[in-house]
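tl;dr need the bound structure. longer version: we got a ligand (zinc ion) that a collaborator sent over and nobodys looked at where it sits. i said id run it. heres the input, straight from their email, havent touched it
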Amino acid sequence: MEPIKQRYSKQRETILQVVRSTLVHPNADWIYKETRKQIPNISLGTVYRNLTQLVESGQILKLKDDALVRYDGNIDHHDHFRCTSCGKWYDVQLLDPSAINAFNKNHKFRIESFNLELEGVCEHCAD
Ligand SMILES: [Zn+2]
Ligand SMILES: [Zn+2]
């Protein structure tokens, strides 16, 4: 038997790899199904608990899609484009972060972070 602590960190590491392995911005159910391929006896509650801890420690991002919560393994600054036709999320870069510096120089507000969520139709759904 492995020590319990070691087993927990192994679960978290596996879940982190699952989230980082995809660009689909998966929800918890998707992550649960993928994680079970590697840890067959893991519970959905354990997956949720680890996702929360990974978000709190800044290793993954939590995104909201209406009522659905999605997760993102890409923690570098980027914006999101959501296709209203197929529901897919894409990583995009609309605003250069240097635009924020220019804005801050010219206004009384000081923007410290931003995350744009754009909506439209993706190239696969455009025809
Ligand atoms: Zn689409
Ligand atoms: Zn993303």
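gonna send this back to them w/ a short note. The first strand starts at residue 61 and ends at 65.
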